[in-house]
Amino acid sequence: MAHINLLPWREAALKAQQKAYFTILAAVGILAFVLVLMVNFYYQAHIDGQNSKNQYLKNEIAQLDIQIAEIRTLNDKKAALQKRIDVIEQLQRSRNVGTQVLDEIAKIIPSGIYIIELEKQGNTLQLVGKSESNNHLANMIRAIELSDLFADATPESITADDGSPKLLSQFKMKVKIKGLVNDPNAVLASTTQGGG
Description:
The chain crosses the membrane at residues 20-43. The protein is α+β, with helices and mostly antiparallel strands. The chain has helices at residues 7-93, 97-108, 134-146, 184-195; strands at residues 113-121, 124-131, 150-160, 169-177.
């Protein structure tokens, strides 16, 4: 029987297998690299898109912050103007206060009470007078509390006058005038500084 040498064929087949193996390996490596690159590009595109959306939102938020700051300054100006309007309205109401106070005092003082001294400080009246009895004084305090112009009648002192033939008692009382500004000039100055 003839001997056939198969070693070169085996070596060629082995080389062909190795070549095919390395070719497939290189193809799989290139395919994996391309796949990784595509996935990377895909996610990078998503990240870039999200970053552009975030930048857009940041720009819009910055514009809204500017608008909010403008609204706050407008609200501050509005509040300052409202304070000025309130002060002007109070000053308008208190323009004829002297006449109104004297007219109201004439209405609320019952017979048997005599006012000796009347002093106005801001929105407070200091009354000094004489009373024939404490009942007259209590009636006057009730009338003050029911008055539309006066409030918070506070007696400071009631002293008996032994030297008087009618036994009159002397009293001091503080009464608040409703709706008056304590110091109109100070309020105007503060609103001017606050709203200027």
